[in-house]
Amino acid sequence: MRPSGRQLNEMREVSIETNVTKHAEGSCLIKMGDTHVLCTASLEARVPPFIKGSGLGWVTAEYGMLPRSTSSRMRREATSGKQGGRTVEIQRLIGRSLRAGVDRVALGERQITVDCDVIQADGGTRCASITGGWVALRLAVNKLLKAGDITSDPLISPVAAVSCGIYAGQPVLDLDYPEDSEAGVDGNFIMLANGQMIETQMSAEGATYSRAQMNELLDLAEKGVAELVAAQEAAVAA
C-alpha cells in the first residue's frame, strides 16, 4: 500500500491554472498533489552571445525553491551569494528539456526564459517544473504568433516529465515525498507527447534494479506523461 493510498499506476491529482501573473508573457501555477510550482515565461528580443547572428532562438530556464516550500525553512540562495549544485543541475535540465520540443529556426533570434519557483514541495519538483514550464512557454509563443512576430509555430511537441520508482519493492508512478525519501530506485522521465524520450535519470538509492524493472518504470512513465500532456493541452486550450 502506498502512503497516499494511490494505486501503483495512479498519478497524484494534477491541476494547471494559466495566466496567474500580470506581467509575464506566459504563466501558470501547476499543482501535482502537494507540489506547487509557479512557472512564468518571459520574451526577450536578444539571444546569448554564442548564437548571436545564427538565426536561432534560445529557450533557457531558472529554478528556485521558496524558503518555506519545505517542512523547515531553507536559507535563500541569494543570501549565500551563489546557487547550490542541485539548483544549477535542475535548471539546466529544465532548459534542455524544453528546448527539445522547440524548432529554434522558427523561433528566430529571440530568447524565452522560463522561471520555475517552487511554492510548496512534496516530491517531483523538477518534473512539475518541466511540465508547467512548457505550458508557460506555449502561452508566450501564442502571443508571438498572435502578434505576427513569427509566422510558423516553433513548438514541435508538448514536453512533460514524471517521476517513477521502486517503493517497498513495487514499481510506482509519480512519487510524493514519503515515497521519494524511502524509494529503493528513483527515476525521472522527460518525454515528448508521442513518447519519444528526452532524458531519463535513474539511480539505485539503496537497491539495484533489473532490466525488467526498468522497463516497468518506463511503461509507468509513458502512462503518466500521456496524462500530463492531456492536462497541458486542456490548460492551454481554456
Automatic annotation (TrEMBL):
Protein name (database record): Ribonuclease PH
Record has Nucleotidyltransferase as a keyword: yes
Summary of the function given for this chain in its UniProt record: Phosphorolytic 3'-5' exoribonuclease that plays an important role in tRNA 3'-end maturation. Removes nucleotide residues following the 3'-CCA terminus of tRNAs; can also add nucleotides to the ends of RNA molecules by using nucleoside diphosphates as substrates, but this may not be physiologically important. Probably plays a role in initiation of 16S rRNA degradation (leading to ribosome degradation) during starvation.
Alphabetical list of HAMAP family matching this protein: RNase_PH
Organism: Shimia marina
Extent of the signal sequence: none
Keywords: Nucleotidyltransferase, RNA-binding, rRNA processing, Transferase, tRNA processing, tRNA-binding
Domain of life: Bacteria
Classification via Pfam families: RNase_PH, RNase_PH_C
Residue span, Exoribonuclease phosphorolytic domain: 10-140, 158-224
Gene, per the UniProt record: rph
PANTHER family named among the record's database cross-references: EXOSOME COMPLEX COMPONENT, EXOSOME COMPLEX COMPONENT RRP41
EC number in record: 2.7.7.56
Chemical reaction(s) catalysed: tRNA(n+1) + phosphate = tRNA(n) + a ribonucleoside 5'-diphosphate
Binding site residues for phosphate: R86, G124, T125, R126
GO biological process: rRNA 3'-end processing; rRNA catabolic process; tRNA processing
Family (UniProt): Belongs to the RNase PH family.
Quaternary structure (record): Homohexameric ring arranged as a trimer of dimers.
